[in-house]
């Protein structure tokens, strides 16, 4: 049976567990699997791009509601300026006082991105980011995962199911399959992005 929708995924989880008494729990296993996948999967299929007009003197801007992690941040000036990430503490050390000018760095605080120095001119902020996929449900029956990586959904759901059933041996089996699949996806993505170029350790550790 092809796993290509929320409903076929539920059936597959039930079939692989060989249990008919977990119907009410399977949707919970799937939700937990989606959260597990979101923490680790970094591929172009879940990338988006957001643009925001800059306001002179304003350093905080709202992030997209589906923002997960930043891929790149730049200001579409002439020439384009790519901003470097700093932690909030580092940003405070570099800029102890309020300043404005050409923004060079950014950080993430809550649901906002902070630019330093605060921009002094009107340009456009562009954020490329990994998005949080819409959760599967009875009304949203497909997403990028059901179309491209149903194995991740299945193995992730089985991990959560076996944890619920307190079956430690089978957790290890499904976790091994899940880890192998997600590592292959991320490795394949690295090859596609950086084919022909040396891939630095910084890129590997912070996609």
Secondary structure layout:
Blueprint (H helix, E strand, L loop, with lengths): L5 H12 L5 H18 L6 E7 L6 E3 L4 E9 L5 E2 L1 E2 L2 H7 L5 E2 L3 E5 L2 E5 L1 E2 L4 E8 L12 H5 L1 H16 L2 H27 L6 H5 L2
Parallel strand pairs: 5-7, 6-9
Antiparallel strand pairs: 1-10, 2-8, 3-4, 3-10, 7-8
Helix pairs in contact: 1-2, 1-5, 2-5, 5-6
How would you characterize the overall build of this protein?
- It is a single chain.
- It is built from 7 helices and 10 strands.
- A hairpin with a 5-residue loop joins strand 3 and strand 4 (81-82).
- The strands form 3 sheets. It has a 4-stranded antiparallel β-sheet with strand order 1-10-3-4, with no helix packed on it. A 4-stranded mixed β-sheet has the order 2-8-7-5, with no helix packed on it. A two-stranded parallel ribbon has the order 6-9.
- It has helices at residues 6-17, 23-40, 88-94, 144-148, 150-165, 168-194, 201-205; strands at residues 47-53, 60-62, 67-75, 81-82, 84-85, 100-101, 105-109, 112-116, 118-119, 124-131.
């Amino acid at each position: 049976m092809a796993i290509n929708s929320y409903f076929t995924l539920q059936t597959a989880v039930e079939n692989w567990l060989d249990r008919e008494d977990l119907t009410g729990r399977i949707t919970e296993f799937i939700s937990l699997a989606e959260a597990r996948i979101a923490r680790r999967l970094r591929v172009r299929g879940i990338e988006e791009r957001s643009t925001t007009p800059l306001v002179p003197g304003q350093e905080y801007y709202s992030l997209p509601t589906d923002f997960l992690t930043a891929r790149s941040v730049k200001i579409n000036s002439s020439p384009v300026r790519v901003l470097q990430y700093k932690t909030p503490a580092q940003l405070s050390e570099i800029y102890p006082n309020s300043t404005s000018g050409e923004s060079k760095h950014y950080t993430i605080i809550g649901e906002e991105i902070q630019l330093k120095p605060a921009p002094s001119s009107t340009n456009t902020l562009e954020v490329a980011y990994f998005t949080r996929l819409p959760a599967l449900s009875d009304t949203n029956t497909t997403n990028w995962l059901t179309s491209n990586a149903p194995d991740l959904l299945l193995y992730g759901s089985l991990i959560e199911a076996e944890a619920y059933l307190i079956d430690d041996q089978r957790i290890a089996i499904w976790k091994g399959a899940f880890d192998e699949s997600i590592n292959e996806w991320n490795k394949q993505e690295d090859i596609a992005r950086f084919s022909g170029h040396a891939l630095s350790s910084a890129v590997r550790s912070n996609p």
